[in-house]
C-alpha cells in the first residue's frame, strides 16, 4: 500500500470542507484536555481514569458493530493490552505534569512521541538522519532546552512538570507502535475499547496508591465527563475520521493548533504569560513536530 506521502497517494486525496473541519476540531478538542484536568477536583491521575472508563461502553458497542479487517490473534490482543498499560503510564505522567507546568509546555512535551519515534527509527534502521530529519531533531532539542531552561527560571516545580510531560512522551511511543500494528487486523473501535479496558484499572490503581480523590467533589462530574467526551470521543473520533484524507505533513501542521490553543487557555484561565523565549522554544518544537509528521 502506498504511503500518504507517496505522490500517487496524494493524487487520491480529495479532502472536503468537512474533513478540514474535523481535523481542526479534533485538535481543538484535544487541546482542551489539560485545562479540563486542572478544572477537575479529582486527582490528576483519577481524571485520566475517568477519561478511559466513561467512553468504554460506547467504544465496546461500536467495536461489537464494526467488521474486523481480519481475525485478531491472541498475541495481538495481549500486545494491545500491554500497549494500554503504557498508555495508562503516559496519561498518569502527563496529567501529573499538567498540574505543575504551563499548559502550552504540557501540550508540546506531551506530543514529543513523534520525535522519539524518529529517533527509534534511526536506531532500528542503523543509519544517520537525513538533512530534513537532522533539522527536526536539532529544532526539537533546541526548543526543548529553551523551554526547560525557562521553566527552571520560574521554579523547580514547573521544571518537574515539564519532565513528567516528557516522560509521558516516552510512554506514548510504547503505546503507539503496538496500537498502530494492531490496526492491521482490528477495527479502530476494537483497538480503542481494548486500550481503555487495559488502561482504566491501572490508572485507578495508581490514583489509589498516590492517595488521590477518585470521585468528583464540589465541582461535580462536569469536568471529568467533558474530558472524556472532548479528548477520547470527540477529539480522537474526529481525528480518526479525518486522518485518511490528508498527508502526514498537513496533519503535522494541524497539530500546531494544540499547543497554541493550550497556551491561550492557560493565559485566559490561569494568567500564564509567555515571553519571547517561550514563543521561540515553542516554535522550534512545533517545527520539529511538523517535520517529523511530514515523513
Concise synopsis of the structure shown:
The chain is 77% helix and 0% strand.
Kindly describe this structure.
With 295 residues, this protein is mainly α. The chain has one domain. Helix content is 77%, strand content 0%. The protein has 15 helices and no strands. The protein has helices spanning 7-11, 17-31, 33-39, 44-53, 56-65, 74-98, 103-110, 113-125, 131-154, 156-182, 188-209, 222-243, 248-255, 257-270, 276-293. α5 (56-65) runs antiparallel to α11, α6 runs antiparallel to α10 and α13 runs antiparallel to α15. The longest helix has 27 residues, at 156-182. The protein is globular, with a radius of gyration of 19 Å. Residues 1-10 have low confidence and may be disordered.
Short descriptors:
mainly alpha, 15 helices, 77% helix
- Percentage of helical residues? over 70%
Global structural class? mainly alpha
Rg, alpha carbons: 19 Å
Distance between the termini: 16 Å
Oligomeric state of the chains? single chain
Strand content: under 5%
For the record, the count of structural domains works out to 1
As residue ranges, the low-confidence spans are 1-10
Instruction: Describe the main β-sheet briefly.
Output: none
Number of strands: 0
- Mean of the pLDDT scores? 78
State the order of secondary-structure elements, H for helix, E for strand.
Answer: HHHHHHHHHHHHHHH
Shape field: globular
Helices and strands in order:
Blueprint: H1 7-11, H2 17-31, H3 33-39, H4 44-53, H5 56-65, H6 74-98, H7 103-110, H8 113-125, H9 131-154, H10 156-182, H11 188-209, H12 222-243, H13 248-255, H14 257-270, H15 276-293
Helix pairs in contact: 2-12, 2-14, 3-12, 4-6, 4-11, 4-12, 5-11, 6-10, 6-11, 7-10, 7-14, 8-10, 9-10, 9-15, 13-15
Amino acid at each position: 500500500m502506498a504511503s500518504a506521502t507517496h505522490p500517487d497517494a496524494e493524487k487520491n486525496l480529495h479532502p472536503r470542507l468537512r474533513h478540514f473541519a474535523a481535523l481542526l476540531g479534533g485538535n481543538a478538542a484535544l487541546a482542551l484536555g489539560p485545562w479540563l484536568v486542572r478544572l477537575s477536583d479529582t486527582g490528576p491521575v483519577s481524571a485520566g481514569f475517568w477519561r478511559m472508563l466513561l467512553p468504554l461502553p460506547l467504544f465496546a458497542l461500536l467495536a461489537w458493530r464494526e467488521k474486523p479487517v481480519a481475525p485478531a490473534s491472541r498475541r495481538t490482543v495481549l500486545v494491545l493490552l500491554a500497549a494500554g498499560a503504557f498508555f495508562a503510564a503516559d496519561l498518569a505522567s502527563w496529567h501529573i505534569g499538567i498540574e505543575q507546568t504551563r499548559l502550552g509546555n504540557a501540550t508540546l512535551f506531551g506530543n514529543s512521541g513523534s520525535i522519539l519515534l524518529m529517533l527509534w527509527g534511526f536506531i532500528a534502521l542503523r543509519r544517520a538522519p537525513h538533512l530534513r530529519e537532522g533539522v527536526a531533531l536539532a529544532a526539537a532539542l533546541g526548543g526543548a532546552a529553551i523551554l526547560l531552561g525557562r521553566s527552571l527560571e520560574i521554579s523547580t516545580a514547573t521544571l518537574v512538570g515539564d519532565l513528567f510531560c516528557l516522560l509521558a512522551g516516552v510512554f506514548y511511543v510504547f503505546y503507539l507502535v503496538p496500537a498502530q500494528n494492531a490496526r492491521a487486523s482490528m477495527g479502530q473501535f476494537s483497538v480503542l475499547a481494548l486500550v481503555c479496558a487495559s488502561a482504566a484499572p491501572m490508572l485507578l490503581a495508581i490514583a489509589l496508591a498516590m492517595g488521590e480523590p477518585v470521585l468528583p467533589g464540589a465541582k461535580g462530574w462536569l469536568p471529568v465527563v467533558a474530558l472524556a467526551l472532548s479528548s477520547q470521543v470527540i477529539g480522537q473520533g474526529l481525528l480518526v475520521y479525518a486522518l485518511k484524507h490528508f498527508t502526514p505533513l498537513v496533519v503535522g501542521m494541524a497539530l500546531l493548533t494544540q499547543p497554541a490553543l493550550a497556551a491561550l487557555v492557560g493565559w485566559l484561565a490561569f494568567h500564564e504569560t509567555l515571553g519571547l523565549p517561550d514563543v521561540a522554544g515553542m516554535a522550534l518544537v512545533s517545527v520539529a513536530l511538523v517535520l517529523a509528521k511530514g515523513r
